[in-house]
Amino acid sequence: MSLCYVRNGISCREIKRSAYGAVRALRWQNRLRRAISMDGRSVSLALEPQDGRAFAPRKSERGRAMAKVSIIGAGNVGATAASHIVALGLADVVLLDINEGIARGKALDMMHMCSVLDSGLKVRGTSDYADTAESDVVVITAGVACKPGMTREDLLATNASIMTSSVRQAIALSPNAIVICVSNPLNVTTYLACSHGGIPASRVIGMGGRAP
Predict the structure, then answer these.
(1) Residues 6+ apart with CB under 8 A from 180
(2) Comparing 18-22, 71-75, 153-157, which segment has the lowest mean pLDDT?
(3) How far is CA 133 from the centre of its chain?
């Protein structure tokens, strides 16, 4: 399988740098066979996996993919995070939501994507926390979105209970997991995850950003 990056008007050196950077970011442990077109317009990087399968996930001593990521909340943010994790071949994913039908439907779509990528990763949609057991990372995106006229205090009234409930149930089954909080108001929900999850602050991360 090969990746091809094509753009006119950019030097071949710049194209090569961008392509190599993209491949390194994927963290594949497969050997790369570089076949570079020198016409100044295109670069092709062909993957040559050691085991004959493209996008083959790394294996742990337990025989499963090196990492397992559980995402609590199958809304737009949670589903997008799951899709990127699968596309990059980083980990098996459990997508959990109170609405099991939504979680299972989105997980099924991602499993179809895995077949196209020839990936051995697994994606499960569920409403049962038991499926998140032994996760390496737990990402919590569950909660209500901020609507026009709502304040941070309004969000906190609902999302605080969702965060504390989610982190307690997840950590009970994955006591060594790293927790990434995404739900707003982020600084407060991250504090709640740390204080109610019973895990060290060094294993709790708040992920936020600002639109340009």
Answers:
(1) 137, 138, 139, 140, 205, 206, 207
(2) 18-22
(3) 17
